[in-house]
Amino acid sequence: MNGGGPVDGDGASAGRRTTDPGLQPQRTALAWQRTGLSVLAGALLVGVVGVRLRALPVTLVAVALGVAIAVQILRRPTADRPEQSAAPWPALVLMVGAVVALGLTGAAAGILTLVRR
Length: 117
Fold this sequence. Notes:
Number of domains: 1
Number of strands: 0
Number of helices: 4
Largest sheet: none
Strand content: under 5%
Helix content: over 70%
Shape: elongated
Domain DUF202: 20-80
Pfam family, one: DUF202
Membrane topology: Multi-pass membrane protein
Order of helices and strands: HHHH
Transmembrane segments: 31-51, 58-75, 87-115
Distance between the termini: 67 Å
Radius of gyration: 21 Å
Protein name: DUF202 domain-containing protein
């Protein structure tokens, strides 16, 4: 049915390489960039809620998260900073930490909203 040759998992013949090995890291980097933009948007929303609630700690944490993520998004590995591409873990840890901190800050803002009613 496939011309007689063995087929691997993605439907290509087993003897041919049909993918570019450089594309996977690029897709991963783009996915983390989208995650960072989503966290940045969430930090903006939590910051607005903090301002409306007049809750300075919530607003400050949201602004700090937004700045940290914006800096991380804008920093890209370049030829003069090859150490960034060799060690992606610090960026990953920052992103995961920002997601967790944003969730906790959003939960605090939600609790403040309920308490102040």
